[in-house]
Amino acid sequence: MDGRKKEEAAPLIRQMIEQQSGGEEIDKLIAALRRNAAIDVNQKDLQKLAVVPPGMETQSEEDFRKDYTGKLEVLIIDIRNNEKLASDYHIQIIPTVIFFDSAGKEAFRHQGFFSEEKIKEKLAKLGVV
Questions:
Q1: CB 112 within 8 A of CB 95
Q2: Which of 105, 99, 98 is nearest to 71 (CA)?
């Protein structure tokens, strides 16, 4: 990928990730990106992502604690500061939501955005609420 323009490299990176093959090549690419890549933020697109659609507002921490006190524990892990943990749990996409049962066994995993409504549905199916 060395020397390729962003427009040329992006589809190749996407294809590599989608196929989840060539782990060694991906590791090399990630290492090269960490050494050489510059972050280009499109402020207009970023602003669109920052807007929360109506009805999707996050509850306050206090409201969440009232609803689920004694029923579950929520941990948010910053994988930038916990790379080994991210590796141990095979975190490949941010965000990743993992539900564990009371014995610590993984009961459910979702990669990507997971709305509050869907989380509540899954908790109900798992018998938590």
A1: yes
A2: 99
Left if phi > 0, otherwise alpha if psi is -120 to 50, otherwise beta: which for 127?
Answer: left
- Contact between 108 and 118 (Cβ < 8 Å): no
The mean of the pLDDT values for the chain is 75
pLDDT tens digits for 61-83?
Answer: 565 557 677 777 777 888 888 88
**pTM for the structure as a whole:** 0.49
Q: What's domain 54-125's architecture?
A: 3-Layer(aba) Sandwich (3.40)
pLDDT tens for each residue of 100-122: 888 888 889 999 888 888 888 88
The residues spanned by each domain of the chain are 6-40, 54-125
End-to-end CA distance of the chain: 49
Handedness of CA 30, 28, 7, 114 (dihedral sign): negative
